[in-house]
Specification:
By secondary structure, the chain is an alpha+beta fold. 38% of the residues lie in helices and 20% in strands. The strands form two sheets. Strands 1-2-3 form a three-stranded antiparallel beta sheet, with helices on one face. The chain has a two-stranded parallel sheet with strand order 4-5. The model has no long low-confidence stretch (mean pLDDT 88).
Length: 140
């Protein structure tokens, strides 16, 4: 059997366990796939992470079938969650707070599958850089 031909590939950041159909419709409506089925598959796959933002890569094939590939939550989201959602989430506004090495390591371990390193120390440096750019102090 020949492999399916890919027609569209879209990355979406959706609420885990409760994907809004409106967001799915905006990005996937023109593909002709069944949005309710995409929502059901995404919600089932992310039910354990409810409350998080979980990016997903939706691959749409010629026969209007689809495949989902889940990614880890955005680094900024994980940092804000570790800080207890302190500060503003508006663009251009820094988030105030201090990130401990334990929290930094936990975030790095969670993000490791999506980073371009297998070394936890390098992953921690990457996460620390993101935190600093958000105005978060990383304490030793």
């Amino acid at each position: 059997m020949a492999p399916k031909k890919l027609t569209h590939q879209v990355t979406l950041e959706l609420s885990a366990g409760n994907a809004p159909v409106v967001d799915l419709g905006k990005m996937l409506g023109q593909t002709g796939i069944n949005l309710v089925e995409v929502k059901k598959a995404y919600d089932a796959a992310t039910a354990a992470q409810r409350g998080d933002i979980v990016p997903v890569v939706v691959s749409v094939f010629e026969d209007r079938s689809f495949a989902l590939r889940l990614k880890t939550p955005p680094t900024s989201f994980l940092i804000k969650k570790a800080l207890g959602d302190k500060g503003s989430s508006r663009p251009g506004h820094e988030v105030a707070g201090k990130l401990t090495q334990e929290k930094l390591r936990a975030i790095a371990e969670r993000k490791l599958p999506d980073l371009n390193t297998a070394d936890i120390e390098a992953a921690m440096r990457t996460i620390a850089g993101t935190a600093r750019s958000m105005g978060v102090v990383v304490v030793p």
